[in-house]
Design brief:
With about 200 residues, the chain is an alpha+beta fold. About 20% of the residues lie in helices and about 30% in strands. A hairpin with a 5-residue loop joins strand 8 and strand 9. The radius of gyration is 17 Å and the shape is globular.
């Protein structure tokens, strides 16, 4: 049970997602659906997930493993890719890896392979970009005609959202505990001069 949405606005990106994964009289579980990676002054990447929790957690784990030099022989990770397009390729590749391993077993048990991701952020001087990564690992990018993506699985349950205020320097300033991320466009007149403090 997941619902997540992301919007690409003139001043940046906004992400929101619920945290509910199951429901019942005595079975309620809550899991984080928004993940983010940042290198202060260089990049911020946010990933919202919807679908089979085991699949989405496996994809997140693969992405995190690539941040460790010994586990990423080609050295490409969310901290090294030169653009958000390449970040979307990396997420798609991780999803295909999990699909190759788990899809047959899931379908044999009557469960479809279901995982969608909304990826957004900013790397270096490029403008903030937003992508929807499908279960097959391919993706589309938001445009002026469709500046938002939404992804849901099963039903909408509990939700939480917040938009971070944009400080004068253009950096995102997150509160201490959130299920939502908002990334303002880094103002080019402030080239990485304002520290991001979390």
């Amino acid at each position: 049970m997941t619902y997540c949405v992301a919007l690409r606005l003139d001043r940046g990106l906004v992400f929101a997602a619920d945290t509910r994964t199951s429901a019942g009289n005595d079975n309620v579980a809550v899991f984080r659906k928004l993940h983010f990676w940042r290198k202060a002054g260089e990049r911020v990447v946010v990933l919202a997930s919807a679908g089979n929790l085991a699949v989405t957690q496996s994809v997140i784990s693969l992405i995190n493993e690539r941040l460790v030099d010994e586990l990423a022989p080609d050295g490409e990770s969310l901290f090294t890719v030169p653009s958000m397009y390449r970040a979307a390729l990396l997420v798609g590749d991780a999803l295909r890896t999990v699909r190759k391993r788990d899809a047959a077993a899931l379908e044999e048990s009557g469960s479809p392979f279901n995982a969608n991701f909304i990826l957004g952020g900013q790397i270096g001087p490029e403008v903030p970009r937003l992508f929807h990564v499908y279960p097959e690992g391919n993706f589309i990018e938001s445009t002026g005609d469709t500046p938002y993506f939404q992804s849901a699985s099963t039903s909408t349950a509990s939700r939480s959202s917040i938009v971070w205020p944009r400080p004068a320097c253009g950096w995102a300033r997150p509160p201490s505990s959130l299920s939502c991320r908002s990334i303002p466009h880094y103002a080019p007149t402030y080239p990485w001069g304002c520290p991001l403090t979390c």
